[in-house]
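Quick question, first post here. What does this chain look like in 3D?
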Amino acid sequence: MITPYLLYEDVAGAVRFLSKALGFKKSGSAMSGKSGKLTHAAMKLGDDLIMMGYPGPRYKNPKKLGEARRFSTSK
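> Answer (accepted):
Ran it through. Tokens below.
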């Protein structure tokens, strides 16, 4: 089994989105940093598990670096 670990600048927002949009359920204990910001969470969809965490203040996502990617398919 492979468990993906996803990085989110806003872990709490990701938890809310994945719950509402895709039906994921919280799993296990979440962890917060000293500031109270959620830094780690795990969620399940059926028997499948994903983990997510905050990558830290030095992390720069591709969109902020001007390198956002868009994918499209055509038939």
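The CA atoms of residues 23 and 45 lie 7 Å apart.
Helices lie at 11-22.
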